[in-house]
Amino acid sequence: MNAFHHFISSMRLRLGPRAWHNFCIDAGASALFSFFNVVYNQFYIPMAIQEGASNIQVGLLSASPAIGLLFSPVWAGWIERSNPKPFMIIPNLIGRALVILPAFFGVPVIYVIVALLFQLLMGVQAPAYASLIIRMYPPQHRGKLMGNVRVAMGILMIPIAFLIGSWTDAAGPTGPLLFASVTGVLSILVFTRIKAKKEAPSKMLAAKRSSLREQLQLIKQNREMAMFSWLVPLRALAIFLRSRSIKLFRLIIWSSPIRKSVMRESPISLVS
């Protein structure tokens, strides 16, 4: 216990008041966001399938992150010339509040509309978050602090996923969606207390903006970056195939002869 207290005290001294404050706020907001993250990213599509989503609707739900990110470059230039914090806070606040709609109107079309609107808003906050991070943490500690926050969030998400899955099986998607929306909104409200610098570091401001040809040439010359550029679309394809496999699995289970025979039995005959 003393060693842990010493570690926290020494890290606080190394970071300074602003960075330590931002780390605590970021960690607290991420802990709350874990609940929203599990419900939306792991259970949202299965919930839509449970409500009767068609193949095309499942496809739109799977493709919605890519659709939202298509417009990120449009916002990136504007965000670079202004304060990124509102572009981070407002889209997240609206997007996480929207998730409450499928809880009350549990039809597949609402799931699809909310997912598309949510991801379009995430297309705004994605470049804003990247721009905000460099104003939150000093460069020598940025990677470590972001990694610590993400590891803690990942550890929390493991038991949360089990609890949300059990809750959904027992009571349906309404409760988990309401809970996710509330915790998501609370997490972004906590994040508003971040104390970010108004100006980006001078090196970032003075950096030359590369053309599209120069960026492609950089990817071609950098093996790791080229591999990353290939892995991102492959991950999107894997997510899409996973959602289709979930759909197929549920169709097999729901159409199996054993389940049909059980469903035809009355509660009295099952007991007897």
From TrEMBL:
It is found in: Cell membrane. The chain crosses the membrane at residues 20-40, 60-79, 99-124, 145-165, 177-194. Keywords: Membrane, Transmembrane, Transmembrane helix. It is a multi-pass membrane protein. InterPro entries: MFS, MFS_trans_sf, Sugar_transport-like. Signal peptide: none annotated. Its main location: membrane. Gene3D superfamilies: MFS general substrate transporter like domains. This is MFS transporter.
